[in-house]
Amino acid sequence: MKTPLTGILPVAPTPFNADGTLDVPGMRNVIDCLIDQGVDAICILANYSEQMVLSDEERALMTRVSLEHCAGRVPVIVTISHFSTDIVVKRAIEAQALGASMVMMMPPYHGVGMVPAPDTIFEHFAAASDAISIPIMIQDAPLSGVTLPVPLLVKMAQEIENVSYFKIETPFAADKLAALIAAGGDHIVGPFDGEEAVTLLADLDAGCTGTMTSGMFPEMIRPIVTEYLAGNHDAALAQWKLCMPLINHENRQCGLRACKTVYAAGGVIGSDYVRHPLKPMSQRTKDRLLQLAGDLDLIALRWGK
Question: Which residues hold pyruvate (predicted)?
Answer without folding.
Answer: 212
